[in-house]
């Protein structure tokens, strides 16, 4: 049964806004209400079409009024932010965790809410040398994340599960996304790969699994309009090694010994270039891959882009000018081959 | 002209290669019949002229520089392993340890199987040599996917190389995923107890963990191939273990061998013992009843059976061996 009134949180950012834009194209959805603390910029607002934007903070009990008054039946919670934009962790944590709690409290009171879709992250599995090669939905982290985005996400998931116990009539879909990538989206990872010289941890090479942002939106839309409760890992097929991804982007890796990581990372953080929290560094050490069998078989979705295709699309779409250009490398190869041929 | 000068790629005929190389640079184009000793495993690789070799090396370098290669979910980089890691181990396999394999036919050609072997030698050369044996000398040229301790993946460089060469963490989900995918999985259930044991305990199998490898094999329904390695115990005779230093460095043991640590880097050169790797009769696990992996008695019995087989084979091989270095 298609939803009538959908509430989308975090609508001023790429994922929330684009999801609202997609939902407007679906005639079965009667109303779309977008909520965020800041208004979306003009281009995004134009794409969102008939979405009704409500400038509200989900930490404010006002959200409860929005939900009851407009008889929202489906809540899509995508506002959980990674630590890419603001440097202030406590504000972000408040937005993520307290915002979710407030939103859940509002939903619990509302008799009309029937479905909830939460955008979570595969970061809840952590990253450690004791990790299995691929995480299934039933596995937990080896070490509990003690701070940052992963901790936020783990807490949010916990509250959502609690909400599910108190409102068993609400169908809950939790989607654990791997790192999103694409030409239009701005995340920690896209900023990282946009650096001309990319700091890595010496002696470590992470396995990266990525998901094209368009696939992510499609999954969110499917979860919103269809009724598929459960927890699902969402990630592209295959992996890229961090070193390989850097090479494919034509970047130069700058391996930093792990002892020197903290001064280097504090430089990058103060320069607001990339996120370099301990959690992010662990991720860049060990990486993380999730098993998406359940997504395919139960959720019924196969990502259209593999990790590699998504990454290449990002490199092309962003027009990253390679520091190491493939043409140059090919020219060098031809040059040496030519010299060898002359030698004979 | 292109196929006139032949440089065998195998170290088994290294001096032949050098001779032809010299005659080639002198402009002598006399075609020389290909040395048969080098072509033991056929395929075009052995019969390439040197410019083709250069072209291939260049193409390999280009693919590496541009990141144009495939890596599987476990981080296994087949291209790197075949082009760089295995060739660097081959001289050790062929010249240094002169490994002889016995019973390679016991390793299935296509389906998944679990190779269980004894562990020894302070550094895991035995694991590396078993990989070379199966890749180079098994008729189906099988890639052994090893299960390693988490310490391996914690260490810089070593951990990254381990993943690239096809290893993954020794845990049941990974083992079952690999076995279910029809891979050949290698496991050394003695772990650090085996590899770091003192020299006086050589060829005495240590405790076989909790038998997790058996339940993984039962669940995946694949046979267990016991593998006995003789020779690896003598490469670094571990005379003593300095526990305080080991604790300080976070290592499971800190060995003292005749050459290490007082000779520094020289101490890391393994002694050239003569090796034998014997693969025993596969032990079937698929005939066990449903849910057998949850029967601890059955798992322990099977684990003991594998252990006994390896131990007996070790004693037999040792009885046949006359000299540690000459075999």
TrEMBL record, chain A:
It comes from the Bacteria. Gene3D superfamilies: NAD(P)-binding Rossmann-like Domain (3.40.50.720). InterPro entries: Epimerase_deHydtase, Lipid_A_modif_metabolic_enz, NAD(P)-bd_dom_sf. It holds the Pfam family Epimerase. SUPFAM superfamilies: NAD(P)-binding Rossmann-fold domains. Residues 6-235 form the NAD-dependent epimerase/dehydratase domain. This is UDP-glucose 4-epimerase. It comes from Halopolyspora algeriensis. The lineage of its organism: Bacteria, Bacillati, Actinomycetota, Actinomycetes, Actinomycetes incertae sedis.
Automatic annotation (TrEMBL), chain B:
InterPro entries: P_lipid/glycerol_AcTrfase_prd, Plipid/glycerol_acylTrfase. Keywords: Acyltransferase, Transferase. The keyword Zinc does not apply. This is 1-acyl-sn-glycerol-3-phosphate acyltransferase. GO terms for cellular component: membrane. Residues 113-232 form the Phospholipid/glycerol acyltransferase domain. The keyword Phosphoprotein does not apply. It comes from Halopolyspora algeriensis. Residues 9-48 are annotated as: Disordered. It holds the Pfam family Acyltransferase. CDD domains: LPLAT_MGAT-like. GO terms for molecular function: acyltransferase activity.
């Amino acid at each position: 049964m298609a939803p009538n009134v959908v509430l989308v949180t975090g609508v001023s950012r790429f994922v929330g806004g684009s999801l609202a834009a997609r939902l407007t194209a679906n005639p079965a959805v009667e109303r779309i209400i977008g909520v965020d603390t800041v208004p979306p910029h003009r281009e995004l607002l134009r794409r969102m079409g008939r979405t009704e934007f409500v400038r509200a903070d989900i930490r404010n009990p006002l959200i409860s009024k929005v939900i009851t008054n407009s008889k929202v039946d489906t809540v899509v919670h995508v506002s959980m932010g990674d630590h890419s934009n603001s440097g202030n962790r406590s504000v972000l944590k408040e937005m993520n965790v307290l915002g979710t709690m407030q939103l859940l409290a509002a939903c619990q009171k509302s008799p009309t809410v029937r479905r909830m879709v939460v955008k979570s992250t595969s970061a809840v599995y952590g990253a450690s040398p004791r990790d299995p090669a691929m995480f299934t939905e039933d596995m937990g982290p080896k070490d509990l994340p003690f701070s940052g985005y992963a901790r936020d996400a783990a807490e949010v998931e916990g509250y959502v599960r609690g909400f599910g116990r108190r409102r068993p009539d609400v169908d809950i879909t939790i989607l654990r996304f791997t790192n999103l990538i694409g030409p239009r989206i701005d995340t920690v990872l896209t900023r990282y790969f946009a650096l001309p010289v990319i700091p890595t941890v010496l002696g470590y090479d992470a396995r990266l699994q990525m998901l094209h942002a368009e696939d992510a939106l499609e999954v969110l839309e499917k979860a919103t309009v269809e009724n598929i409760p459960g927890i699902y890992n969402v990630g592209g097929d295959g992996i890229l090694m961090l070193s390989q991804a850097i090479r494919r982007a034509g970047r130069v890796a700058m391996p930093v010994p792990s002892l020197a990581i903290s001064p280097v990372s504090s430089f990058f953080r103060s320069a607001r270039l990339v996120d370099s929290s301990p959690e992010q560094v662990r991720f860049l050490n060990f990486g993380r891959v999730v098993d998406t069998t359940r997504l395919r078989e139960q959720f019924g979705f196969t990502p259209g882009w593999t990790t590699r295709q998504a990454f290449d699309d990002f490199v092309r779409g962003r027009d990253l000018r390679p520091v190491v250009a493939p043409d140059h490398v090919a020219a060098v190869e031809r040059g040496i081959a030519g010299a060898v041929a002359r030698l004979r | 002209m292109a196929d006139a000068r032949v440089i065998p790629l195998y170290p088994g005929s290294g001096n032949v290669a050098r001779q032809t190389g010299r005659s080639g640079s002198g402009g002598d184009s006399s075609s020389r019949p290909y040395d048969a000793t080098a072509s033991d495993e056929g395929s075009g690789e052995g019969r390439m002229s040197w410019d083709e070799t250069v072209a291939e090396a260049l193409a390999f370098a280009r693919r590496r520089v541009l990141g144009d290669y495939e890596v599987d979910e476990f981080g296994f980089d087949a291209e790197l392993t075949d082009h760089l890691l295995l060739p660097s181990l081959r001289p050790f396999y062929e010249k240094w340890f002169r490994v002889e394999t016995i019973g390679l036919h016991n390793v299935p050609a296509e389906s998944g199987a679990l190779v269980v072997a004894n562990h020894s030698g302070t550094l895991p050369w035995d694991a590396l040599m078993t990989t070379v044996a199966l890749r180079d000398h098994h008729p189906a040229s099988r890639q052994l996917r090893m299960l390693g301790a988490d310490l391996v993946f914690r260490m810089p460089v070593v951990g990254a190389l381990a993943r690239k060469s096809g290893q993954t963490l020794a845990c049941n989900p990974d083992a079952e995923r690999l076995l279910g995918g029809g891979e050949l999985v290698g496991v050394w259930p003695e772990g650090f107890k085996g590899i770091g044991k003192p020299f006086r305990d050589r060829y005495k199998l240590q405790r076989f963990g909790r038998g997790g490898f058996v339940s993984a094999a039962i669940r995946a329904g694949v046979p267990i191939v016991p593998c006995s390695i003789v020779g690896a115990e003598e490469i670094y005779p571990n005379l003593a273990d300095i526990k305080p230093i080991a604790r300080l460095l976070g290592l499971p043991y800190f060995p003292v061998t005749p050459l290490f640590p007082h000779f520094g880097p020289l101490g890391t050169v393994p002694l050239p013992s003569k090796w034998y790797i014997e693969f025993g009769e596969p032990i079937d696990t698929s005939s066990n009843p449903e849910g057998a992996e949850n029967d601890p008695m059955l798992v322990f019995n099977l684990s003991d059976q594998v252990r006994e087989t390896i131990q007996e084979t070790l004693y037999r091989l040792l009885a046949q061996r006359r000299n540690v270095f000459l075999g």
